[in-house]
Each structure stands twice: as structure tokens, then as C-alpha cells.
Amino acid sequence: MSELEKNPDTAAEELPPEALEDPLYFDPEPKEGAAAHIRSFPAAPEFQEALGYPGERPENWKEVVLDKMQDLRGKFRSFRLFLDICVKCGSCTDKCHYYMGTADPKNMPVGRQDLLRSVYRRYFTLPGKWFPSLVGARELTEEVLDEWYTYYFQCSECRRCSVYCPYGIDTAEITMAAREILDSVGVGMKYTNEIIGKVFKVGNNLGLPKPALESTLEDLEEEIEEDTGVKVRLPLDEPADILLVTPSADFFAEPHIDGLIGYAKVFHATGAKWTLSSYASEAANFAMFIGSYENMRRVALRIRKAAIDLGVKRIIIGECGHAWRAAYQFLNTLAGPFDFLDPNYPVPQHICEYTWDAIQQGKLRFNKEENDFYKMTFHDSCNVARASRMGDYPGGQFDIPRNIIKAVCNYYYDMPEGTIKEETLCCGGGGGLLTDDLMELRKKGGSPRMKALKHVAEEHGVNKMAAICAICKTQFSKIMPYFGFAMDDIMSVHQLVSNAIVLPGSIQEKELMEEEQEEKTPDAAE
Amino acid sequence: MSGFYEVNGKQVPHDEEGYITNLSDWSKELAEVIAKNEGIDMTDEHWEVVNFLREYYDEYQIAPAIRVLVKAMKKKFGPEKGNNKYLYELFPYGPAKQACKIAGLPKPTGCV
Question: What's the CATH architecture for B3-37?
Fold first, then answer.
């Protein structure tokens, strides 16, 4: 954490002493309207139209909104149930990282739900139609629509609140529905919707065309050969057994790209025939964030087409949180059946499952000392932790990444209970909020996680945190400098694998052999 | 908010975040204006980065990964200037986004 790496015009934030006692501490006093000014840039008409939405708000927008609510109410029983069932018990109120960070009561999960629930009650329930003021029902007005846009884009759909709700109400589903309703009247968010359009046009969130991807992969092959003396391939659009679909950030930014190098080394060491696809060069599916089934399907079908065109037997997903949810939970219904794949493997598989299998089978050799500079902790990404699974038992998604880290690092410490596993805190940038125009929210929403990290930093000297989500990695590299950490204190799990792996025939293997030789014959040199 | 940069009495439109709307509007003078807006005084090293970004964009229709940029800088100026830290000193808000803005290129989007 050198001074140089800190953002020069931001000083580390001072934490109150209570925060160091309790990482979930926050000032409990709600401040009405404290986050009302935080608004993301709206999408221009061209971005809306590319996704099949109106470019601008139609004259009869009220009618369209209510029709859409009626439509969602019929289609998704969960939506209706969640709006009907809340008893205002208050369990969720202090569980949202955006509420902890902003103190705005509309960022309490129940407060956020009520923004929509109040309108639902007015138009879809009997008491709301007859006695609106008695049941917290309100008219749909322009101000309401505006408020929806503000606060439904201050939810990262992380589902932490749903863990504590006695009825299991999933705020994320309500947020997704609200965003879909807004889009249906031309009110969309620039960041998410421009990006989904790029996937349709170029194949990935970044807008990385095939020649650029090709050149990047060649560069990485050269770099790996320089470092290890081994020719490790990163094949693109080649016939193979395994199709790796990974977030496009893995082709572009640190520390993501170091993770990609890790996957390539693991595939090499296990002798796998694998490939990337330029057509499906994106694991992310931002359409999930805006609750758009149609667009989510369009994105998912690209993976199916690439798998068929390349004749693969397996699909593996790289380090990306919501992509794993989209793939694990929805790929089969969106783009299945995948009966053309090898039935001996799960569809899809997570790269961590693949690596952990290889480790258990003794196929990988590591020199853990390569990671001895690092005292590691692991940040559970919300979509992996609370919306999917890894391996063949409940909780595998918590163990497998930790098992991998412990297999390649000597020092590992968990952050405090209540901030990890199913209770993990969002990074503050998930759910389509990873945009510069929401930086204030991202900092505030990320603060609970940063406090938990500070805890283990002080207690155990932890100096690096690993994650398996592109959004988390980018979010942390941006906000960490505000909290006294350096931007590269966030790492990819497969970056640690890459550091420690000893490839057959590599420079690292030779060095280890020489060391062993010296240890065996200590006097030979004299 | 979207608006205009003033260059030699001409108005050049930009988006909410200061990226120019028409890439063909770019000129060296404009780059100086954008840089000033960002609180950056353009030195030879800044120009080296901006020129490299533009050349790369010409070929690939996207800005290079930071790693690629670092490598190119290393080749030209040696390891002292060919590293991440140095690039962040030149462009404190990130060599990818801030340098792209000055180079008149679109902002890299996605999880970066």
C-alpha cells in the first residue's frame, strides 16, 4: 500500500472507534432525502431503442406503467407475493450497505420496496383503491417515476436483505421489475443499456472487436512464455472440448487479466483442449440487472451459438459474479437444452470448480512461497454467495474459492462473521451501478465492506483481498484508495493460482529442482 | 451535463462526462483544452500516451488494455516510465479513461 498508488486527491477516510469494534457499525440516525441527489445518467434514445424499448416517454406513460405492472404481476408470482406479503417487521432495515452508507431511509430495503408497493396498492388492491391513505397507497405521478429512477438505481440487487427477511422477500426482484417498468416507458440507465447494446453489436460489454482480442491474447501468450519458458496458448475460435466464457474485463484491466493468465495456465497444466469465442466474448449479462427477460435471452443465446459452432463438450464460466448466477440459474431455461454437451459435466461449470477438481486430482503443482508476500482474505461476491452454488453440496460456493486460495497461499484469514458467506456485504458497485456518475454511492455503499477489511488488516495483517467477480474487482480497485488501501490490494483468485503454479518444463520447475538438489547435498558446494 | 469545449472560437460538443461526441472533431489544440479541464498540463510523456492510444484505436477501434500501454511505454522509455504507477501519476483518474478522454476516444465501458 504505497503512498504513490493512492489516489492523490483523496485522503484515507477516518473511521470512528466504534467501526473498529464492530465492522457493521453505522450511525443509526436516518436522514430523509440524504441520497436523493445521487442519480445516474439516463440512457439516450438510441440506447433504449437498441434494446427494444421506446426512446422517449410516451404520452400515455401512466397507462403503460400500470399495464406493465399488471403483466409482471401475472407472469411472476414472486413479484405479486413480495408486494403483498411484507408485514413491516423491520428486520431488513439496517441490512443494506447503501442504507448503512447513505442513511437515507428510502435505501432501507423495505423503504425501497414501498416506493413501488405504494403504487401497486393504489391500483391493484381493494383497500388501496378505496382507502388509499389508510394503507400507504399513492397515485402514480411524475414525481413517483422520478423517485423510482433515483432509488431503484441505488440498489445493487445483492439480496443481503432477503437473508434476514422472515418471509424471504427478495428486494432484487422488485428492483429488477421496477427497472423493467421504467424501461418500458423509455426511462433507462445509460451505463447498463449502452453496454447491453454493445454486446449485441460487438459481442462484449467492452466493445472489444475480434482483431483487438486476438492481439491481446497473443501478447499474453508472449508474456507467459517470457515468465515461465513454457508456450501456454490462449486459443480463440478454435475447435475444442471446452468453451471458456469470461467477462471481457479479463481481456482489458488489472487484476482481471492476471486471472485470465491463471485460467490459461490451469488449462495448460491439465492438458485441456479449450478455447475462447469472439462471438461469445462476454460472460456478463447486464440484462439481468434491468430485469429484461428478452434481452437476457438474446445475450445468453450467444453462448449457445458459440458452443454449437465450436463443437465443444463443456462450457466453463470465468470469474464473474452475476454471470455465474445468469449461467448457473438461467442458462438452461434461456438458451437450453444443452443436450449436445457431455452429460458427465455440469452445465455450466465454474472455473473454480474446474481448478479445485484438478487440485484434488493432484494435477497441479504449486510453490506457495510465491504468494508469501500476501496475507489474504476473500470477498464473497453476492451473486455467487446468495444466488448460486458450486460443487455438489450447499455452501460449496463458499468453500471452493477459499480451498483454492489456501492451496496456493500460506496465509489466509476470513473477515468477521456477519460480513462473509451468505451474509457477505456487497462491494458497492454491483447490479449495474459500476459507473463513474454513481461514485459517491459506490464509496458510501462500499464502506461496510472496507470496514470489515480493515478489521482483518489490523488483527491479522491482511494486505490483499481476492474476489471472483469482475465488478467487485473494478469497484474495489477504485474505492480502496479512499479507505487507506492501494488500488492493487484487490486480486483475482486465479491470479494467486497463476503466481504459485509450477508448470511442467518451466523455469520455476527448474529452479525448484535446483533448490531441492542443494538441500539434499548441502556439502556438495563446498 | 453535456456541453461544448471552446477551441479557436469553435464549439466542440461533448457528452455528460466530457468525452467528445464526434471523434473527427479531435485536434491537438482540443486535447490541450480537455487536459486543462481535467487539471493536467500536457508534457511529452502525456503526449506519448495520447499518441499511442490514437494509433492503437486507429488499428483496433478500441483503446488498448492498460497492460499493452504499459508495455509500449516500457519499450520507448524504459521500466522507470513503463509501469502502472507512473501512468497513474500522469493521469490520476486512470490512464484508460482519462487519457482516452484527452485523446478524443470513446470511454471504455463494462466492468473496467
Answer: 2-Layer Sandwich (3.30)
Cα-based torsion angle of the residue sequence A131, A132, A135, A138 in order, rounded to the nearest 10 degrees: 180
Q: What are phi and psi of A103, to 5 degrees?
A: 65, 5
User: Taking all residues of chain B, what is their mean pLDDT, rounded to a whole number?
Assistant: 93
Q: Is the ipTM of this complex over 0.85?
A: yes
Same domain (yes/no): A215, A179: no
Q: Is the pLDDT of residue A13 over 70?
A: no
C-alpha cell at A214: 486476438
Asked if residue A509 is part of any domain, the answer here is no
Look at strands B10-14 and B3-7 and give their pairing: antiparallel
Task: Indicate whether A485 and A339 sit together in one domain.
Answer: yes
Q: Which residue in A212, A434, A488 is closest to B60 by CB distance?
A: A212
Q: Looking at residue A5, what is its pLDDT?
A: 37
The SS3 assignment for B72 reads: helix
Burial of residue A39 (number of CB atoms within 10 Å: 0-12, 13-18, 19+): middle
**Residue A221 contacts B where some CB pair is shorter than 8 Å:** no
pTM: 0.95
Same domain, A218 and A320: yes
Catalytic position from the list B31, B35, B111, B112: B111
- Residue A42's DSSP bridge partners are A189
Provide the residue range defining the domain that includes A44. 25-188
A:376-435 residues touching chain B, CB 8 A cutoff: 434
User: What is the pLDDT averaged over residues A433-452?
Assistant: 97
For residue A272, count CB atoms less than 10 angstroms from its CB and return exposed for 0-12, middle for 13-18, buried for 19 or more.
middle
Is there a single domain that holds both residue A150 and residue A238?
A: no
Whether B111 is a known active-site residue: answer yes
Taking contacts as CB-CB distances below 8 angstroms, the residues of chain A near B110 are: 195, 198, 204-207, 247-249, 252, 284, 470
- For domain B44-102, give its CATH number from 3.90.180.10, 1.10.10.370, 1.20.120.450, 3.40.50.2300: 1.10.10.370
* Strand ranges in A258-330 using DSSP code E only, listed in sequence order: 274-275, 314-317
* Predicted local distance difference test score (pLDDT) of residue A4: 34
Question: How far is it, in rounded angstroms, from Cα A1 to Cα A509?
Answer: 30
- Flag if B110 and A205 touch (Cβ within 8 Å): yes
